[in-house]
Amino acid sequence: xxxxxxxxxxxxxxxxxxxxxxxxxxxxxxxxxxxxxxxxxxxxxxxxxxxxxxxxxxxxxxxxxxxxxxxxxxxxxxxxxxxxxxxxxxxxxxxxxxxxxxxxxxxxxxxxxxxxxxxxxxxxxxxxxxxxxxxxxxxxxxxxxxxxxxxxxxxxxxxxxxxxx
Length: 165
Prior knowledge:
This is Histidine kinase. It comes from Arenimonas soli. By secondary structure, the chain is of the alpha+beta class. It contains six helices and three strands. The chain has helices at 5-10, 13-21, 73-85, 87-90, 106-133, 141-161, and strands at residues 24-31, 43-48, 59-65. A three-stranded antiparallel sheet has the order 1-3-2. The chain is elongated and about 70 Å long. The two termini are 33 Å apart.
């Protein structure tokens, strides 16, 4: 389940842990009118996000269980209730500005922060290599600006994930 990015994006840690304990290994959005068959040896349960104003109204959330029978009827009802409780939040803003994800966990944000740092560092190192090939001696104002912009991006991500106080 931890290798399933949709689960990390869709559910907060407590719900993911609950699903993991029941054998859920994957979650995907699939078209409501043309649902693909489940993979061999897997059990899938679909949950409609039945919000008429939702940008995801034409999709269903498919949970995949490969080493378990899936959710019991009572557990499926609990999960459906959780998804239904999100309706006011999904319809709180205009449809064109709504985020299609239901939740975004802190773990997902930390992964994004790590990847952003890696990409920015790679970009800055490549810029340094380019300046060496261009025969620039000493500090290059363009590279200094790139480094400053990269650091500001990292600082902004840091503020979002680790606010002061």
